[in-house]
Amino acid sequence: MAQINLDKGKTMLLMADFSTSGIGQNPIAKARQTLERARDVLDAARQAGVFVGYCISHFRPGFPEVSDRNTTRAARRDTGEVLPADPAALIHPSVQPQAGEPIIAKHRTSAFSGSA
After folding, report:
1. What is the tens place of the pLDDT at every residue in 4-48?
2. CA torsion 43→48→53→55, rounded to 10°?
3. Other Cβ atoms within 10 Å of 93 Cβ, number
């Protein structure tokens, strides 16, 4: 394994889009053992004392953040789907956050634009 030197004070492992309904059902992710590999990275980061955070797509009841132009998410909205109040419930069980690890509930493709 390559030796990587990180400044722990300026480094974050961002666990992005590890949803049960997305990656958890993706046959390519399964074939590539994506969840198992992500878990290895997550465990190593925690052991090394690296700050860990998460982001996951999450919307308020009725999906008011979703534009009609986003046909995929609008279709989910239009079915009347109700998401759990806690966005952590959407994260795949194999890579769940621990206490104190923040979760960004994103409303767009980017976790850094348009999220509260």
Report:
1. 788 888 999 999 999 988 887 889 999 999 999 999 999 999 999
2. -40
3. 10
Helix (H, G, I), strand (E, B) or coil at 12: strand
3-state secondary structure of 87: helix
For residue 55, pLDDT beyond 70: yes
Tell me how crowded residue 76 is: count the other CB atoms within 10 A of its CB.
Answer: 16
The torsion angles phi and psi of 72, rounded to 5 degrees, stand at: -65, -50
Per the DSSP assignment, residues forming a β-bridge with 51 are 12
Nearest in space to 16 (alpha carbons), one of 99, 98, 95: 95
Q: CB neighbours of 94 closer than 8 A, spacing ≥ 6?
A: 35, 36, 38, 39
Cβ-based neighbours of 1, under 8 Å, separated by 6 or more: none
CA distance linking residue 107 with residue 55, whole number of Å: 10
